[in-house]
Design the sequence.
């Protein structure tokens, strides 16, 4: 999908949170739901490519995700209290030296609600795209 094609889709649903990326094979990816992340991961795993850049976008608010590490992480999360409101979030992160540096972003606003640093073993492996060029021994990480 080109940027122009994305604009057509964006205008159809301005309330969507978009996952936007360009991979090292030169392909641009635009997804309006989390399922798109799984498609992007499958593309990267199959072709051994990695996002050159990754952005989340809600309306004009764009969040750049750090892709400088050994991998990039994205999953859905819920946060709430008993008897209170439950809020949807995206958890984004960067893998560096066996640790995933995460930010919890509210949906749809994409404002940082919290930050975490977790060992890779505490993360969902399905949510991680490895950078084949910069990662350390993957088998030891999993």
Sequence:
């Amino acid at each position: 999908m080109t940027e122009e094609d994305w604009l057509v889709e964006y205008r159809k649903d301005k309330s969507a949170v978009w996952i936007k990326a360009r991979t090292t094979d030169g392909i641009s990816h635009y997804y309006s739901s989390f399922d798109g992340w799984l498609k992007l991961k499958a593309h990267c795993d199959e072709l051994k490519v990695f996002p050159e850049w990754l952005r989340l976008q809600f309306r004009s608010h764009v969040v750049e995700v750090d892709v400088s590490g050994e991998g990039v992480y994205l999953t859905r999360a819920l946060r709430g209290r008993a008897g209170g409101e439950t809020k949807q979030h995206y958890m984004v992160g960067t893998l560096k030296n066996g640790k995933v540096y995460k930010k919890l972003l509210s949906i749809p606003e994409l404002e940082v609600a919290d930050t975490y640093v977790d060992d890779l073993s505490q993360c969902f492996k399905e949510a991680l795209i490895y950078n084949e060029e910069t990662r350390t021994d993957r088998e030891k990480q999993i």
Remarks:
- Residues 3-141 form one domain.
- The mean pLDDT is 92.
